[in-house]
Amino acid sequence: MTTSTTASTARSVARPVLVGAFWLVVWWLAALAVGQRLLLPSPAEVGARFVELAVTPGFWETVVFSLVRILAGFVLGTVLGTVTAVAAARWRAVDALLSPLVGAVRATPVVSFIILVLIWVDSSRLAVVVSALMVLPVTYAAVLEGVRQRDPAMLEVAAVFDVPLLRRLPAVDVPAVLPFFAAACQVGIGLAWKSGVAAEVIGLPGGSIGERLYDAKVLLESADLFVWTAVVVALSLGVEKVVAALLRRVPSAHAASRPAEAVPR
Amino acid sequence: MIFVRGLTVSLGGRVVLDGVDLCLPRDGVVAVTGPNGSGKTTLGRVLLGLIAPQAGSVTGLAGHRRAAVFQEDRLCEHLDAVANVRLVLPREVPAAVVAGELRALGLTADALTLPVRALSGGQRRRVAIARALLTDATLVVLDEPFTGIDADGRPGVLAWVAEACAGRSVLLVTHDLDDTARLGATVVRLGSGEGTPEQPMSAESAHRSTPAVRSSGSSSGESPVRPA
Q1: pLDDT bucket at B59, cuts 50 / 70 / 90
Q2: What is the pTM of this model?
Q3: pLDDT at residue A4 in the model
Q4: Total number of domains constituting chain A
Q5: Structural domain that includes position A144
Q6: Which pLDDT tens digit goes with each residue over A23-62?
Q7: Do residues A77 and A208 both lie within one domain?
Q8: CA–CA separation, A228 vs A41, rounded Å?
Q9: Which of the residues A157, A254, A257 would you substitute to probe the B interface, choosing the one with the greatest number of B C-beta atoms within 10 Å?
């Protein structure tokens, strides 16, 4: 390893640590300035509360409860979004029928869905349905765009050589759509957690993170609120990294992935 | 035998092929030359079924299995050379056989281990050639197949291609008359205002055993190529 490479690696490790430390200091100073635990607990108070909660069995049961349901919603929305997008790309009529519906779902406030879905399903399954509804339009739009952006030259090759669909898919179609799909997953995971936890806060299924957040608000336990919020952020980022690692194992024709910002939300 | 009669193709409002006649023998190479924009590639694309002509007909295509070296390499960038070729071959063709043919075309053992996006232009072209000619296609369109192949490697590639073309109908699009001679191709020239072959090209004359460069003659309102 050269000196410049070593220095570059050190910088890439040190930078996020320094940035994190900077914001912790800002938080700590702000908590000192406010001087009221109720309004803004310090990082040390939140850390201590996290340690207290983490050793209780109920903490991890709560984490698993919400994780399973929100992940299920993400997977359901992703699968439905992908299947409908492929159908829309294949049949114009499907696109004509689905596009306005997906647009309406995307534009509808998440609380409207939460209240509506709460009438239809049990609160324990609310997060699954709401997360799926939030993820579906993102995946639909991204995959549809990816299918449409496939290289026509490679499709001609497949047509001329009469390559069967099952061999064409991994060689031509999947690598072309994958960057769009990956970007949609990245956006979709964040959306699933935001909407899923919001649904839990309103639906209050027993043993969920949303219920714990609601309790923290009612009992004015600001440190608990910060802890559970941090848990949601950590879970969201963790799932995002796992999904990204899984998708990296799929070969892609495109060296650079499409940035998440470019995905229609 | 494949017969092209009165073929007319317009692209983007411009007439690219205007009443072209041509015949491709069951076993032989017909090389199409002509200036840029004369419709050489378009003619190949019609034979491959990628463009529908506005007028004219192409008969004798039924039952043909098609393959092509396109003007661009058109490879799956994330796959290695062997995987690119095997993509269009029956599953039972062993990777070792494909690798052997690619080596015969001049690819090094190291090059075979890399995704094709890491290969040079000449190496990629060899992969595209192998992909087309290792198939059992009976109709092959080779659109400037030797572009980017270095002078040292060219004779070997030409010899490999000449052998692989035997027994097939091959349309070669090229600017290089040396290549056509080495492939024993019958040469026809496309291009508006370039005239017609000195003599109409019969089905018999369009045979690799009778290589001939059809020079331009006087333009008398006939289509540029009148083979039959």
Answers
A1: very high
A2: 0.79
A3: 67
A4: 2
A5: 43-262
A6: 999 999 999 999 998 899 999 999 999 999 999 989 999 9
A7: yes
A8: 13
A9: A157
Residues A16 and A80 in one domain: no
**Is A163 in contact with B135 (Cβ distance < 8 A)?**
no
Give φ, ψ of A187 to 5 degrees: -70, -40
In total, chain B counts a number of residues equal to 228
Mean pLDDT for the stretch of residues A168-182: 93
Q: Which residues of B53-63 are buried (b: 16+ CB within 10 A; e: fewer)?
A: beebebeebee
Task: Tell me: do A257 and A173 sit in the same domain.
Answer: yes
Look at residue A11 in the predicted model and tell me its pLDDT: 79
Judge if A2 and A106 occupy the same domain: no
Question: Is the per-residue pLDDT at A252 higher than 70?
Answer: no
Residues A194 and A167 in one domain: yes
Q: Give the integer Cα–Cα distance in Å for B102 and B117.
A: 16
CATH assignment of the domain containing A136? 1.10.3720.10
CB contact (8 A) between residue B49 and residue A171: no
Nearest alpha carbon to residue B127 among B180, B77, B179, B185: B77
Tell me: do A248 and A127 sit in the same domain.
yes
CA B47, B51, B56, B60 dihedral sign is positive
A107 CA: distance to closest CA in chain B (Å):
38
* Residues from B in contact with A at Cβ < 8 Å: 48-50, 65-68, 70, 72, 74, 76-79, 87-88, 117, 131, 135
pLDDT at residue A253 is higher than 70: no
- One-letter amino acid of A26: V
Here the ipTM equals: 0.83
Closest by CA to B37, choosing from B193, B157, B200, is B193
Point out the residue among B66, B78, B87 whose CB comes nearest to the CB of A175.
Answer: B78
> pLDDT tens for residues B151-186?
999 999 999 999 999 999 999 999 888 889 999 999
Residue of B66, B70, B87 with shortest CB distance to A171: B87
A171 CA: distance to closest CA in chain B (Å): 7
Query: Average of pLDDT values for A130-158?
Result: 96
Both A52 and A151 in one domain: the answer is yes
Alpha-carbon distance of A78 to A72, in angstroms, equals 10
Shortest alpha-carbon distance between residue B91 and chain A (Å):
10
Domain co-membership, A23 together with A55: no
Q: B122 or B197, which is more confident?
A: B122
* Mean per-residue pLDDT, A175-195: 95
